[in-house]
Fold this sequence. Notes:
The structure holds two protein chains of two kinds. Chain A is an alpha+beta fold. Chain A contains nine helices and 17 strands. Chain A has a five-stranded parallel β-sheet with strand order 2-1-3-4-5, with helices on both faces. In chain A, strands 9-8-7-6-10 form a five-stranded antiparallel β-sheet. In chain A, strands 12-11-15-14-13 form a five-stranded antiparallel β-sheet, with helices on one face. Chain A is globular, with a radius of gyration of 23 Å. By secondary structure, chain B is of the alpha+beta class. Chain B has a single domain (2-113), classed as Dynein light chain 2a, cytoplasmic (Beta-Lactamase). In chain B, 38% of the residues lie in helices and 28% in strands. Chain B contains three helices and five strands, in the order H-E-E-H-E-E-E-H. Chain B has helices at residues 2-12, 41-60, 101-113, and strands at residues 18-24, 30-34, 67-72, 75-81, 87-93. Chain B is globular. The N and C termini of chain B lie close together (5 Å). The model of chain B has no long low-confidence stretch (mean pLDDT 91). Classes of the chains: A alpha+beta, B alpha+beta. Chains A and B meet through helix 4, helix 9 and strand 13 of A and helix 2, strand 3 and helix 3 of B. Strand 13 of chain A pairs antiparallel with strand 3 of chain B, so a sheet runs across the interface.
Amino acid sequence: xxxxxxxxxxxxxxxxxxxxxxxxxxxxxxxxxxxxxxxxxxxxxxxxxxxxxxxxxxxxxxxxxxxxxxxxxxxxxxxxxxxxxxxxxxxxxxxxxxxxxxxxxxxxxxxxxxxxxxxxxxxxxxxxxxxxxxxxxxxxxxxxxxxxxxxxxxxxxxxxxxxxxxxxxxxxxxxxxxxxxxxxxxxxxxxxxxxxxxxxxxxxxxxxxxxxxxxxxxxxxxxxxxxxxxxxxxxxxxxxxxxxxxxxxxxxxxxxxxxxxxxxxxxxxxxxxxxxxxxxxxxxxxxxxxxxxxxxxxxxxxxxxxxxxxxxxxxxxxxxxxxxxxxxxxxxxxxxxxxxxxxxxxxxxxxxxxxxxxxxxxxxxxxxxxxxxxxxxx
Amino acid sequence: xxxxxxxxxxxxxxxxxxxxxxxxxxxxxxxxxxxxxxxxxxxxxxxxxxxxxxxxxxxxxxxxxxxxxxxxxxxxxxxxxxxxxxxxxxxxxxxxxxxxxxxxxxxxxxxxxxxx
Lengths: 378, 116
């Protein structure tokens, strides 16, 4: 049983600037008066190892880092450790970076202090955030945007040793990485490169980085770059045909459970109509569904209709899931149901419930506008 | 500017169904009015920040959207973003004593023409 005090917060700082990290440790360590246990990592690989070994409450990530930058790392963190509160620090606080960080689940986007005196303001902000109850529920994506190749690449570049455990509905595979080299893979009855290629051909699933233990044998040899390229080639060859999965009792069904919508239909057929909103979409005006996505709570797409960018939509639903909890925090609004977004001619609805996320975008017919304010009216 | 916003928000609080409202400026200053102790200024300010963040992410996704409505179990949160980055949040009940459509239209129109 842990003898750590309940209010001890484990705070991880990830920054390639060692001097900055040392200053953070010295100053914030003093200011926190024992309330924080501070961890430092100079790159994303070391940060991942710390995250594996310690239940980090708050991660503060520098946006500008070499190899794997803060935004990429944030995306990985958001999927693998969704309960960790995330803050980004940037020396160049431009709006594009801010948007990217918010989209990837950062609670705060802070400008890196140029004056050590400003660091105390940052500390106060972080302390408040660390004291807040972390978001522990909601919609979470898994392998949609951070591909397995990205994770392997990150582990190999950082010369890490770990086991990447990958699982689908009815199968599990493991890739052994030792000091930055892929040494073994197993999936079902397969071993070696065949297993590696099979795992990397999976269209979705979950992954978990585990501490390294020696594999039963070394079945793979060669540079990881070539192995990933070969896996990509094998995957391309299989393109168009069903991907062969490791032996499983039942195949994973990804067939759409919903009928194909035949536009034009009414948006109100898909989502409960709003009680009152501008402009009222529940009136009898034909709308054209431009795109629609239905996915599971883990971000696995079960149905999509003309969606131009599945990754962006899943990412948006993830953002929404977190933001809806943050928005309702302290206001006691009840469970979140959906976000309705209205433009001049477009309506976008993103609905998040316990087991699914739904996104659709629709265009309606001509709308009359008031000349004064440009607000569309029915 | 501060007085204009305060006065306008105070006026909006007289509308039936309005539980709270706030405006967040592009410089992150936030002005809040609340009708109930349940909706503390801190929580309302936090909600305004979330709304502004949402508009930013919506914009990055290229959804041509000006108005949003967050639908919760018991409450609705409306958000409106002006071209100059001024963001308005309105809080009302979802089922009964909710803000009326006509009132929201008026509020939005006034907000768009609010000289700040």
